[in-house]
């Protein structure tokens, strides 16, 4: 996959772009990168123009601000699409990427054919979760990224799949270690301070796909499946933790393709 770079919101953004057809945008999770989607890209690019980006401070993207709110990331994605001349997309956001996708759907719904939260939630952080963000931020700033990324990467997978996914966990660590200290700290702050956005799911008339992992320790299914409406599809991936794109990529591709085929 060839990496390209353009400037959006004054920030150099690294991305993949491959395939033809209706455009879809893939936004990775915290401490991730565009490579998170490598196992699903080959199938999706058969029918769609697929764009996967690195968020600021992640992967090979730059970072011009000391910190970003979730809404700032959403604006950056909008500006990125404007620079590519893309007027309508279907957006898939994994974890942190899902928070950004929800903000994007609230602020710029005219850009969307539909959107999906993949192992993500419309809920705000709990008090305990906010404290955890602060603790991790302090740890990263004092100790650097290495031990934090190693520890985080194992938590992303189902405990039942750890031995089966040793190679995949190693890949996740390599991707995560590309994230700068500033990128991690900024993202932690953005996640901590994001508002509840269940009203976006409740009010949108756009097609929505909610994807949850049966064994997800980070965002369990009940936190993903928070709103019931006819335009909202729910898809539970069996035997998967927070990383179905690595643990059960074919099931994730199936869910994505089924959703996209109805748009």
Automatic annotation (TrEMBL):
<dbReference type="InterPro" id="IPR050266">
    <property type="entry name" value="AB_hydrolase_sf"/>
</dbReference>
<dbReference type="GO" id="GO:0016787">
    <property type="term" value="F:hydrolase activity"/>
</dbReference>
<feature type="domain" description="AB hydrolase-1">
    <location>
        <begin position="22"/>
        <end position="249"/>
    </location>
</feature>
<dbReference type="InterPro" id="IPR000073">
    <property type="entry name" value="AB_hydrolase_1"/>
</dbReference>
<keyword id="KW-0378">Hydrolase</keyword>
<dbReference type="InterPro" id="IPR029058">
    <property type="entry name" value="AB_hydrolase_fold"/>
</dbReference>
<dbReference type="Pfam" id="PF00561">
    <property type="entry name" value="Abhydrolase_1"/>
</dbReference>
<dbReference type="InterPro" id="IPR000639">
    <property type="entry name" value="Epox_hydrolase-like"/>
</dbReference>
<protein>
    <submittedName>
        <fullName>Alpha/beta hydrolase</fullName>
    </submittedName>
</protein>
């Amino acid at each position: 996959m060839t990496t390209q770079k353009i400037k959006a919101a004054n920030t150099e953004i690294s991305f993949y772009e491959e395939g033809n057809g209706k455009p879809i945008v893939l936004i990775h999770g915290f401490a991730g990168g565009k490579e998170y989607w490598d196992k699903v890209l080959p199938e999706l690019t058969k029918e769609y123009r697929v764009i996967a980006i690195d968020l600021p401070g992640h992967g090979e993207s730059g970072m011009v601000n000391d910190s970003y709110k979730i809404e700032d990331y959403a604006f950056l994605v909008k500006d990125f699409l404007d620079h590519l001349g893309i007027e309508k997309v279907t957006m898939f956001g994994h974890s942190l990427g899902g928070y950004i996708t929800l903000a994007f759907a609230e602020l710029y719904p005219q850009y969307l054919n539909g959107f999906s939260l993949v192992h993500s939630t419309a809920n705000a952080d709990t008090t305990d979760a906010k404290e955890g963000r602060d603790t991790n931020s302090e740890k990263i700033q004092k100790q650097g990224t290495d031990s934090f990324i190693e520890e985080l990467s194992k938590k992303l997978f189902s405990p039942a799949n750890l031995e089966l996914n040793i190679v995949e966990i190693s890949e996740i660590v390599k991707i995560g270690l590309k994230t700068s200290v500033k990128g991690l700290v900024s993202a932690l702050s953005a996640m901590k301070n994001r508002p509840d956005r269940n009203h976006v799911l409740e009010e949108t008339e756009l097609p929505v796909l909610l994807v949850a992992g049966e064994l997800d320790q980070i965002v369990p299914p009940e936190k993903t499946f928070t709103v019931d409406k006819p335009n909202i599809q729910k898809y539970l991936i069996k035997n998967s933790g927070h990383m179905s794109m690595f643990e059960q990529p074919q099931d994730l591709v199936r869910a994505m393709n089924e959703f996209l085929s109805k748009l």
